[in-house]
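Example 187, ligand zinc ion.
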Amino acid sequence: MFYVEQKGFLQNKKGKTAMDSERINTILKEVIKEAQDLKIPVPKNVNGKITINPRPKKRFGCCKLKDREFHIEISEFVLATDEKKIRGIIAHEILHACKGCQNHGVRWKEYAEKMNARYDYNIKRVSSFQEVGLEAEQEKTSADKIKYIIKCQKCGREYPRQRFTCVMKKINAYRCQCGGKLTLIRK
Ligand SMILES: [Zn+2]
Ligand SMILES: [Zn+2]
């Protein structure tokens, strides 16, 4: 079991995680089958167990050749997103095991497009965190960096900001989403 949120690094939009290693290995098999059904030549020597790596914070997965077998690795934080997107990430890595696909060259792209067209994946050379349904911790603003809060006088909603912005200069010219007037609070 993986509790990505407990580490405070990432969580999906719905705030839930769950995907055990058995399920992930089943998905691996299924996605290999999907590729083979499209006549994509996935080699036989793909290790049947996906490695879940808790360390990477940015990459989603990788495909390594070790002891004559391809090993698919998925970063643990990825498990926080939904299954369809996890499948797409696994598919991305499986394609790297195919001959002439170690990079994101023409052949890899051709296979990726086939998979996308047939199974509605969104396999790309590089996907953003947002595209795979994850929110990057770095993009969140940590509480100690907040220098200003724009607060709505009507609904009480707070808009934390790290820097002084032009909205703050002319705060009376702006309104909250609810239509309420705004107040600037310095921390
Ligand atoms: Zn890749
Ligand atoms: Zn408001």
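Summary: The mean pLDDT is 84.
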